[in-house]
Hints:
By secondary structure, this protein is mainly beta. The chain is built from two helices and 37 strands.
Amino acid sequence: MVRTILTLIxxxxxxxxxxxxxxxxxxxxxxVSIDPNAASGLSNIYVVNDFAGCRLVYTASSSxxxxxxRYGIRGASYHEAISEADISRQGNTxxxxxxxxxxxxxxxxxxxxxxxxxxxxxxxxxxIDGLTPDQSETYCDRMVLTxxxxxxxxxxxxxxxxxYTIDRGIKLSYRSLxxxxxxxxxxxxxxxxxxxxxxxxxSLNIEAPLCDTYVTLTGDRFLRAWGREAEIVSSAITxxxxxxxxxxxxxxxxxxxxxxxEDVLGGSAPxxxxxxxxVTDAAVYTRWQMATxxxxxxxxxxxxxxxxxxxxxxxxxxxxxxxxADASGQCTAExxxxxxxxxxxSLLCPNAFSPGASEGVNDEWRVSYKxxxxxxxxxxxxxxxxxxxxxxxxxxxxxxxxxKLVPAGVYYYVIKAKGSDGKSYDLSGDINILRSSVK
Length: 439
């Protein structure tokens, strides 16, 4: 007999839920459950479309009698008990049958109280039926759209009376442009931009589109959940915002014996740099400009082409910038300033090398140079016979004549050159070939 009673008690205890729960029943459209802010003290938020026949069901976690109360925007401290006439009980289930919209409910069992908030959708429905872009604005980075109808702010209140906004999840989408990631040259690609609004108070402020487009507004999350989502499409929008992307690629690879600098752009002349720009659709005016000062008061070159190549021959610093504008000239874009630094010229000549003695080690005669823009070099043996000539300072002499290594001894060079700074070089001297073997 004792065993039978104990088994019955265990069975009854196991039948009770371990955690209390609150649900809503009897509505024509399924209530939408919202996760409350953790600071609100609430366990549930429900948005209900139709309160006719609506019932709030609390399933207790114990067999204790559940006390029910209601509170408003001042918080749970100002609650009022719910009449037993509006409550039905069966086992561990307590049902409130007369629900008041936009109210909080408290269910107390023992020392624990569970709170929820019930919000009426019908008091703040989504009724937007028009969307008009305001293109009279002079803003270049933002777009203002006026909405006709309403999608007002929806609130719920925590147990301390603090107000919280319910995110209506109103979606707005439109076409625009964005930079192409990983592209070797600057470029834009078409994308769909999307923004989410918790509510709409008459106007929308969005990032300005970079191409002609339409704006589509869909809402809200509750109509979406009930299969009644509304879609509103704006009139055509002509883009005004301007953006640009630029790059500067230095094509020159320094010679083996060329003196190098740490500048990102520039170094030893001549330097060839390719400048490239890409612009968005509204840009009708484009210009690259080059100046001798960072304020661009002394512009020495400009072009409207999006791409150009320039060879820098003169010593000094040059500043290059790209700019673009729309037809009105109000919306503009400017690139960062590129700085190209061409160093002063330098030319040094070695007096010995050892071809054929140790491969890869001092086996070629080369000048050391920087910013040499014109170069002529002639090498002779001691009887005045020309061994070789070359006209690029990056080249050198491998100690051969007609494909064979020349004998060890003294040879002579004659160089005429000009630097990017205008300096002239008239050089001559000895070249000593050491440890060379004749084949």
